[in-house]
Amino acid sequence: MRRLRIAIQKKGRLAEKSIALLIKSGLDFDFHKDRLIYECQDFPIDLMLVRDDDIPEYVADGVCELGIAGENVVLEKGSAVDISTRLGFGTCRLSLAFPAQTPFPGLEFLESKRIATSYPNILKKFLRERGLSSTVVELQGSVEIAPALQIADAVFDLVSTGGTMRSNDLREVHTVLESQAVLIRTRKMIPSEIEIDLQRLLQRIVGVLRASQSKYIMMNAPRSALKSVQEILPGMEEPSILPLSGGSDRIAIHAVARETIFWDTIERLKAVGASSILVLPIEKVIA
Ligand code: ATP
Ligand code: ZN
After folding, report:
1. Rounded to whole angstroms, how far apart are CA atoms 148 and 142?
2. Of all protein residues, whose CA lies closest to atom 26 belonging to ligand 1?
3. Best substitution site from 158, 166, 179 to test ligand 1's pocket, by max atoms within 8 Å of Cβ?
């Protein structure tokens, strides 16, 4: 019988983290042989390892019910898929950049300019929405060298740290899309038994994502400081309060914090009288 299928990138920037997410969601694969499809041993799902560019189409066609790809690729392909959830990795942006010495007074400066890109659809949509008529020069790769080769005045490309732009003497002038890896699902009809497995997996993935954003925090504090502690940790759910032995007015506070706990948060907790502060990672969060 056909099983649920998920497509992920075989090799590249999203490959490792996609696998890691699936493994954290309790799926295990035997990666020993070099294959296109891997069967999961402990969950009714098969994994397809492909080029990221093909993932939106596979999911749109229903070859795979699920896929993990960059939002940039999903939007560029314009495939008929739904984004189930953003995954928090593979973050990057699609930006316009000019040679560093070119002054950039504003977006109207793009009028009649030649812009090199591998993302013609996203760029054309952006230009259309702004009423700009620039020439889109489509290139498959090495977009950043187009101005030096004088085949374009500007580039529209993916940036993460900005290092590639800088080393090609380009200056980012406008971000058009903030992107990250997304889990996409097909819009095609799915047999109900596969839909059940899909929902189970989705719930696990959401649990893993929630857990990675949450921390379990424990501390001792004077009972009178409870309100201040709650104000310092706004992402904190109803905390558990435990009396400390010895009959002092100090209590133990335990809670799940939904927001990142920074060092300065801990310093503020200390300042209102908290001590023995422990911040622990959480493996799963099931609502
Ligand atoms: P494939 O062989 O699968 O076609 P690729 O070379 O097209 O791989 P990668 O370079 O591995 O793709 O990038 C995959 C995705 O990673 C991008 O589409 C984007 O969503 C994300 N990404 C994150 N940071 C960057 C970056 N600095 N440059 C390019 N892509 C990035
Ligand atoms: Zn690709």
Report:
1. 11
2. 160
3. 158
Q: Which residue has the tokens 């949450």?
A: 214
pTM of the model: 0.88
pLDDT on residue 232:
92
Nearest CA, atom 5, ligand 1: 12
* CATH number of the domain encompassing residue 255: 3.30.70.120
Across 90-99, 106-115, 207-216, 230-239, least confident range:
230-239
Q: Is the CB of 17 under 6 A from ligand 1?
A: no
Residue 129 lies in domain: 92-179
* Mean pLDDT value across residues 93-104: 96
**Statement to judge: residues 10 and 85 lie in one domain:** yes
